[in-house]
């Protein structure tokens, strides 16, 4: 068999991800705040890109006339935005007209009284007091409890190794090694000093030690509760109250009194110090009800209106080849960014409009009427690929008459009903939560009983699915809910 070299031509199609195309895709999944930061960065790095002045303001000298892109600088797309990035005609471009306002908050260093009055501030109730951290709280007590530098060094090492729940997750040997102290000395500081601090139960090494320390810190401790935690902790965890009653030779009523006192303790004493900072979410889209219809309005606050700086037009004609190439590159980048921002807003508007169409009943009546929805459904409705729908709904929030929701909140699976309809899994979870909130504490519903109740309501759901939804809701199984205190 002879082997020979041969030249041949073959035509294939493939998607090439150019840097500009990657940028356009990236813009889709940015939140409004991230988009503001990216646009501000481009304004600093690209001299051809500038922000339109506010309406009625005078344009700087030489910038009144917009630059027209050179033929070589036209991006490789079928449509390009206007060179000034101003409001577009929706009849010509199929882009929703919107007002992109400035993103730079240039406040004077010393505002006048009038400016302070006119400036809109967030509501006072949106702020919470910033309490001291757990470490600061304990360090302050340590400074007041001892003047001995050695004790303070050991105490600070112990406090520095507490987790957010207030437990000591470090071996005493390691603390002794780092402080140059003996293990017995470290344990003495831990047990006789740090564990006596507020909050009770702090710096424990196990949940059992944490509960014991809290019980012993009570001025009038219950000896039965202490004995249960100290000697029968495993039976307490498994709620084997009859076994504890037999072992202590006490009536079950007396055991349950002690158990109620134990259940009132805080198993994570550091929890109240570890609350996360308050986060504020600015909606990317608003859905307003106007009469019987819903209107979608994009939130454009903080996104600058962009245009190409006309002062650089002369460089395309009178400069050398190297300068001309640089200007053409920056011009192409500026035009593509303007186009990408418009395209992002257009896509976000169309996706939200489609979600509103599918979830009309939810907007009218609430969570019980939320219908199952897939990315594919919205994609087919507006003629886009579901991967594009996934990107544009990432990190985006919508303010609706029913509240503030992430756009991805509306996409989830469904459960079939006896009539052949589909019910949202979120609606099913709400039904399960409502059932368990009204159950009798002494006779909690099992997963099978919940499934049977839902079946009677026309929902075909397996016990395993009920168990899965219950776990996602953070609800304990029936044997652990029995006689457990209800969360308020």
Order of helices and strands: HHEHHHHHHHHHHHEEEHHHHHEEEEHHHH
In whole angstroms, the N-to-C terminal distance is 84 Å
Extract low-pLDDT stretches. 56-130, 484-488
Order of strands, main sheet, comes to 3-2-5-6
The number of helical elements comes to: 22
Mean pLDDT: 76
Topology:
Blueprint: H1 19-28, H2 32-45, E1 49-51, H3 90-93, H4 113-118, H5 134-145, H6 149-160, H7 172-179, H8 183-192, H9 207-216, H10 223-231, H11 233-237, H12 241-248, H13 252-263, E2 285-290, E3 293-298, E4 306-308, H14 313-318, H15 321-358, H16 360-365, H17 375-382, H18 386-392, E5 397-400, E6 403-406, E7 414-416, E8 422-424, H19 425-437, H20 447-456, H21 463-472, H22 478-481
Parallel strand pairs: 2-5
Antiparallel strand pairs: 1-4, 2-3, 5-6, 7-8
Helix pairs in contact: 1-15, 5-6, 6-7, 7-8, 9-10, 10-13, 12-13, 15-17, 17-18, 20-21
Give a verbal description of the structure.
With 488 residues, the chain is of the alpha+beta class. It has three domains: 18-54 and 63-105 and 278-412, no CATH class; 134-273, no CATH class; 414-481, Arc Repressor Mutant, subunit A (Orthogonal Bundle). Helices cover 45% and strands 7% of the residues. It is built from 22 helices and eight strands. The protein has helices at 19-28, 32-45, 90-93, 113-118, 134-145, 149-160, 172-179, 183-192, 207-216, 223-231, 233-237, 241-248, 252-263, 313-318, 321-358, 360-365, 375-382, 386-392, 425-437, 447-456, 463-472, 478-481, and strands at 49-51, 285-290, 293-298, 306-308, 397-400, 403-406, 414-416, 422-424. The strands form three sheets. A four-stranded mixed beta sheet has the order 3-2-5-6, covered by helices on one side. Strands 1-4 form a two-stranded antiparallel sheet. A hairpin with a 5-residue loop joins strand 7 (414-416) and strand 8. It is extended.
